[in-house]
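ingest -> validate -> predict -> emit
validate: passed (alphabet ok, no gaps, 358 aa)
predict: started
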Amino acid sequence: MKRSAIYFSLTFVAVAAGIPLLSGFVGNDTEAYTSNKDLRTLAPFDMWQGTPINEDGTFRNLYQPFDSRFSDLVKWKLSKNPLAERKKKDSRTLSVQSASELVASSDDYLIWLGHASFLIKKEGVTYLIDPILIDNFFLKRQSELPLSLSELPAIDYILISHNHRDHCDRATIEFLAERYPHAEFLTGLGVGKVIAPWLSGQQVQEAGWFQQYTMAEDQAEVIFVPTRHWSRRGLSDENKTLWGGFYFRFTDTSVYFMGDSGYGPHYMDIRNALGSPDYALLGVGAFEPKWFMHQSHISPTDAIKVFHELEGRFFFPMHFGTFDLSDEPLLMPLDILLENEGEIDGTLIFPTVGKNIW
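emit:
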């Protein structure tokens, strides 16, 4: 295969799967910031000025510039995977139980649908986070959904953490938009333009970091919070849309959804600004090889460190076991967590797809 063909092939795969692929861009030291002027900001510290942007208007991380090159992708893909044999022999899949009766009941629930997808019903409102409900050419589920698409309940809010295809799926969003014409989308700055062609006139709220979405008075507070990540969906849109996580403050409990993130000081900022979450939904997968993935995803041991910094009560691991995105075996992140469970200052909830986490 010619070098140009190899380049195109790897580039296409990387963009489709949300694999880091930047052209040596490491950001700059500008002091430009942005936000949605229509939303309330809950500043993490006195000097907070908003979400940082570069001179060209692209977004950047708070503390660590993202430094990834195409040559890194080639190096990873052409290197031998030391976990390959173990991965080949490990045929385990996630534990899955039906959620059909639960979602049909009047009960509140927090349900993992696999990967970074969650279904929440609390205080009479239903939220769907990062739904990837339909397989596509690059993403094939290794675990079943806990309910059929026809069994999904009425959805009030659909939350999209960033534009990578394992979090923001066109076919899924088109299906949801057609089925739930009154649902509202909550996401980060710029993402509205990505999903607008797939919608059926739904309202979209775009937030900067530490901004609170506008909700009804009797509904939860939902705040968009920072992650250490990046964005790209095509070949020329790197970091033009914002990435992040979500923090829910209900009447009697709080939930932090991490989104995709490497390790960094922003976790402490989140705790300082919004308090310690009762439930921390933390990514633990797609972390090998660490030299390549650490800027995008935390490892299971780093997730324990993050959980302690957040001072959370319940630790629920996600972002593993559903899609094959990296070098480690699908359930290796869970193995590592269980081996280190005694070091966790809090309660590790065993991750079962479809089970009520509350």
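The chain has one domain: 80-348.
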